[in-house]
C-alpha cells in the first residue's frame, strides 16, 4: 500500500516533464515568433512535431505512466467530491436535522442524529429499516430523522405522501415501519389497510395526501438530496458523515459509536 502511494506521487513528475515539453511546443506553435521568411515561420511546427514524437515514444515505452496518472487523477477527483459532500452536509445541517416537515423517531434529545433518505419500494431500504429500528431501540440515545425520497415512480410518491399524512395524526413511526415490512405495494387499498392496522384515520389520510404542505415537503427533500449528490436509496447522514447505500446492524452501530466519539 505504501509503495503504491509512493509510486503514485513520484510518477507524475515524469509525466509533468514530458507534458510540459509538449505544452511548450504547442505554445510555440500557437504564438510563433515573427519571422522574416517562410522557412523561419515553419520551424515552430517542426518543433512541435518533434516534441510530440518524444512524448509519444516515451509513453509507448512506459504505458504504466498513463495508468498511474489516470489513477491519481481519479483519486484526486474522488477526494474532491468527498470534500464537496462534507461541506454540503455541514452547510445543510439545519435542514437535515431540524426541518419541521421531517418526521422524527427515537430519542428526541439523542446525542447522535441519524438522517435517512429512502423510498418505500426500495428493497434495500426495507432491509435497512429493520437495521435502523433495531439500532435505534437498542441504543436509546439516537434521534432518527426521516427524509421521504420517493424516486422509484408514482407509486413511491403515493407511499411517501401517505406516510407524511400519517405524521399529521401522530402515527408516522408506526405507519412507516409497517409499510417498510410490506413487499412494496403502494396501491390506495393497501395504504388504507396499513393505515387502519396502525390506527390512522384512512379517510383523513387520503385528504391530507393532497395537501400542498406535503408536496412542499417532498420538493424540499428532493432539493436537499440534489445538493448532497444523493441519487439512490437508501442514504444516511450519521453524525455529519454521508453514508450511501444499505448498512448492516454492525456497521450501523459502529457509525453511531464513531459519531458519538467524534462529538465528545
UniProtKB/TrEMBL annotation:
Gene3D superfamilies: Glutaredoxin (3.40.30.10)
MF annotations from Gene Ontology: oxidoreductase activity
UniProt cross-references to CDD domains, sorted A to Z: DsbA_Com1_like (cd03023)
Transmembrane segments: 12-31
Basic and acidic residues composition-biased segments: 81-98
Domain of life: Bacteria
A Pfam family the protein falls into: DSBA
Protein's recorded name: DsbA family protein
Renumbered residue ranges of the record's region Disordered: 81-105
InterPro entries listed in its UniProt record: DSBA-like_thioredoxin_dom, ScsC_N, Thioredoxin-like_sf, Thioredoxin_domain
Keywords associated with the record: Disulfide bond, Membrane, Oxidoreductase, Redox-active center, Signal, Transmembrane, Transmembrane helix
Ranges for domain Thioredoxin: 37-261
